[in-house]
């Protein structure tokens, strides 16, 4: 081997004949893969991801569909019962309570975190000294673990002597039991969710605002538009599409949220903050009724899929 | 330039500063309150403690299994980071360099995964994992976290690969490199900072996660930090001293890592939403 390599001055024909045969094959292989789309290489690169998706998503969906049409517990699977689980679910008042809470929770969260996020994003767009630090600090509620966020709120409103109740007393009111009264618990869980989601909204809307073409505003100000008109006729239409996508994502994340309502009050008091995910969790892991748990999860998935297709269709139409 | 706007700018800074304090108040209040003895904490409830004390932290470290939670969290978060960054980098490279309608479909699939109600997968996975001995085993959580991290890692690494000129690989291929070797030896070293940021993201998400760990890690010596801390709440009376100290400590790694990557976050949010 060494002999051929150390004589580079040889004519090309001899070189091809001798050492560089494996070299040349690789070269041809490399060129061919590069010249064509190279689907084989691409699929090879995707293999680890596809294995993960198969294990954690595809296989459970098939199994879950099967569980949702049978009885059975976590230990052993029961017989086929058709759509009985779905029928039972759609007749139970608990399901409608959970559905109502999930929908209300998602809408309230969207309204709150979009308003707060857009307001802060507009404020952040102005050149303010120390802006970078403010932006980082405003992301805190989003990046701390969900448990830490909820614990800090519980410490703030959790009992009769909590900080908020001390302020209420100081102002002359009676202390409120925020976590044992249904209405107040719902309000608090929504506030915590808004608090945990507004930074993501703010960041994404800030990015959208910064990508708007500056010349639009210049042209408008030459034409004598007021700041309010510019906001109404330039800013809002320009961020409309990204806003629809962001709101859609936020609704889906709110519906799928387990941490906030569970860590605040385990879905209580009296199931007032029990959403569909907590209901499915309870059916499966507390009542050991896998069929009902799987059916509840599928109803959630179907609901979300319907929502996504309707929103995307409406968006395309306009 | 400074004369006309400086006053209104100062005013805006003050307003923004107030907003920041108000919005972060729960976390600030919790942190400050954790540095006093439990009886004093329950009695006073003022923002600033009268006497600072580390007694809750001493109790937490010496009398509760907190350190074992930390160890479990480190293992699961590191495992999930390695697995998901490995899979996500390769997939991101494929999406960046090969155009085919299947790649577009794969991209849409990732978008769907990000919206997927994970409870749907947890029920069957629990039944699947039980006979394999994966309940109370970090591996179960690592696998599920890796999948959850996959979409954003793929998108972010794709956007990094898009910034690297194709000519580099072309040169390597002409010199006789295989595509895989060109990727490992030419492209990956160039994406150093990007890979680091993506890894920290994956670590943060896995470290912060509660729901999945709560389903799969049921015994105390398997629990990660969020699941373990939750036990302080669920007992008959909440152990506020340990709870606040543990929550404050749990937040620390998140904040430190976040300082490293905060520059990438705006970029990530932008590309994530555009590419989706």
Task: Explain what this protein looks like in three dimensions.
The complex is a heterodimer of chains A (318) and B (276). Chain A has 318 residues and is an all-alpha fold. Chain A is built from 17 helices and two strands. Chain A has a single domain, classed as MetI-like (MetI-like fold), CATH 1.10.3720.10. In chain A, α6 (93-125) packs antiparallel against α14, α11 packs antiparallel against α15 and α14 (240-255) runs antiparallel to α17. Chain A starts with a helix and ends with a helix. The model of chain A is unreliable at 1-37 (pLDDT under 50). Chain B is mostly helical and 276 residues long. Chain B has two domains: 2-55, no CATH class; 65-275, MetI-like (MetI-like fold), CATH 1.10.3720.10. The longest helix of chain B is centred in the C-terminal third of the chain and has 36 residues, at 240-275. The two termini of chain B are 40 Å apart. The chains are: A mainly alpha (318), B mainly alpha (276). At the A-B interface, α3, α4, α7, α8 and α9 of A face α1, α2, α5, α6 and α7 of B.
The overall average pLDDT of chain B, rounded, is 85
Total number of helical segments of chain A? 17
SSE series of chain A: HHHHEEHHHHHHHHHHHHH
Q: What is the CATH fold-level name of chain A?
A: MetI-like fold
Measured distance between first and last alpha carbons of chain A: 69 Å
Structural class, judged by helices and strands of chain B? Answer: mainly alpha
């Amino acid at each position: 081997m060494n002999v051929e390599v150390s004589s580079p001055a040889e004519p090309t024909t001899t070189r091809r004949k001798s050492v560089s045969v494996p070299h040349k094959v690789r070269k041809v292989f490399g060129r061919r893969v590069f010249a064509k789309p190279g689907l084989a290489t691409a699929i090879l690169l995707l293999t680890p991801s596809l294995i993960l998706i198969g294990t954690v998503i595809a296989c459970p969906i098939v199994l879950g569909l099967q569980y949702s049409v049978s009885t059975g517990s976590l230990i052993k699977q029961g017989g086929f019962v058709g759509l009985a689980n779905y029928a039972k679910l759609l007749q139970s008042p608990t399901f409608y309570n959970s559905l109502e809470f999930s929908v209300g929770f998602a809408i309230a969260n969207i309204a709150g975190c979009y308003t707060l996020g857009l307001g802060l994003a507009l404020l952040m767009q102005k050149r303010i000294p120390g802006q970078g630090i403010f932006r980082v600090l405003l992301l805190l509620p989003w990046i701390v673990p969900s448990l830490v966020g909820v614990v800090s709120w519980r410490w703030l409103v959790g009992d009769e002597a909590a900080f908020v109740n001390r302020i209420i007393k100081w102002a002359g009111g009676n202390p409120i039991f925020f976590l044992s009264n249904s209405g107040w618990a719902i309000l608090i869980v929504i506030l915590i969710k808004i608090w945990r989601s507004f930074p993501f909204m703010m960041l994404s809307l800030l990015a959208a605002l910064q990508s708007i073409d500056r010349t639009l505003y210049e042209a408008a100000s030459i034409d004598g538009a007021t700041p309010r008109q510019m906001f109404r006729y330039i800013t809002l239409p320009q961020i409309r599409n990204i806003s629809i996508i962001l709101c859609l994502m936020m609704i889906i994340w709110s519906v799928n949220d387990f941490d906030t309502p569970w860590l605040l009050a385990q879905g209580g008091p009296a199931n007032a903050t029990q959403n569909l995910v907590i209901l499915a969790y309870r059916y499966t892991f507390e009542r050991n009724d896998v069929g009902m748990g799987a059916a509840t999860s599928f109803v959630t998935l179907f609901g979300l899929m319907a929502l996504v297709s309707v929103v995307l269709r409406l968006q395309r139409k306009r | 330039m400074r004369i006309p706007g400086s006053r209104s700018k100062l005013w805006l800074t003050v307003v923004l500063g107030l907003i920041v304090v108000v919005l972060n108040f729960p976390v600030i209040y919790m942190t400050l309150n954790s540095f006093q003895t439990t009886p004093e904490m329950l009695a006073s409830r003022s923002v600033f403690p009268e006497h600072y004390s580390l007694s809750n932290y001493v109790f937490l470290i010496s009398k509760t299994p907190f350190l074992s939670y930390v160890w479990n969290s480190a293992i699961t978060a590191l495992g999930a980071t390695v697995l998901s960054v490995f899979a996500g980098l390769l997939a991101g490279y494929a999406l960046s360099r090969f155009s085919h309608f299947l790649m577009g479909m794969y991209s849409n699939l990732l978008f769907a995964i990000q919206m997927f109600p994970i409870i749907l997968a947890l029920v069957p996975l629990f039944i699947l994992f039980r006979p394999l001995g994966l309940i109370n085993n970090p591996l179960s959580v690592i696998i599920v976290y890796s999948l959850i991290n996959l979409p954003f890692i793929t998108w972010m690494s794709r956007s990094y690969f898009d910034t690297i000129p194709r000519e580099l690989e072309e040169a390597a291929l002409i010199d006789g490199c295989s595509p895989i070797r060109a990727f490992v030896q030419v492209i990956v070293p160039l994406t150093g900072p990007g890979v680091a940021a993506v890894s920290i993201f994956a670590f943060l998400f896995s470290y912060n996660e509660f729901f999945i760990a709560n389903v799969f890690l049921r015994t105390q010596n398997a629990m990660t930090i969020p699941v373990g801390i939750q036990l302080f709440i669920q007992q008959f009376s909440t152990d506020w001293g340990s709870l606040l100290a543990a929550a404050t400590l749990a937040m620390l790694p998140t904040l430190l890592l976040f300082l490293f990557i905060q520059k990438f976050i705006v970029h990530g949010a932008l590309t994530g939403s555009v590419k989706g």
